[in-house]
Amino acid sequence: xxxPGKRMNVLxxxxxxxxxxxxxxxxxxxxRIHMDFALRWNEGHFGPRKFxxxxxxxxxxxxxxxxxxxxxxTNQSGPATMSIYFxxxxxxxxxxxxxxxxxxxxxxxxxxxxxxxxxEGEKVVTIEMKNQHSDAIxxxxxxxxxxxxxxxxxxxxxxMVQLEELSERAVADRAINKRFLDEKRREERIxxxxxxxxxxxxxxxx
Length: 206
What we know:
It is found in: Mitochondrion. By secondary structure, the chain is α+β, with helices and mostly antiparallel strands. The protein has two domains: about 1-20 and about 150-205; about 20-150, Glutaredoxin. Helices cover about 50% and strands about 15% of the residues. It contains five helices and six strands, in the order αββαββαβαβα. The chain has helices at about 5-20, 45-60, 95-100, 135-145, 155-205, and strands spanning about 25, 30-40, 70-75, 80-85, 120-130, 150. α2 (about 45-60) packs across α4 (about 135-145).
């Protein structure tokens, strides 16, 4: 039987991936997404970094066939830009999307994968992310892509409520256990000190 705590953690992780900021289905015209920002969060790169860590996994979960590349660099004063590629007609497919996996460009932390030029039949829409909060970046992204937001089902909302209640109960239980253990250790220290004092008195009276 699966451990209830482990099952709860797995379910919580799955629900967190499926729902929240970035949970949206992109229209078929979107062919790929490219993000370019610095390695460190300071000098205006905190918002892009948070969008990448918080929103992009959900976008990828709901849009697994759309390439989403990250290019990071060490120039903290440099730009932070998102490029969204669109096919301009339903009959024109993106060459990047059609490439075999082994020939697809890969994300980079050494500025090796800058935003490529659009292929024939593609257009690019950019979002300037620098000094922007991740929520503002997401709102701009949703507006420019026309993505459809995903909302939890009634069953999922019920599971979320139950998980939240279990999490709160677990916090309370940990606090109770901590107080119990702290009190037990305190009593053990008092007992050990009393035994040491008794041993010292016995030695002194010999």
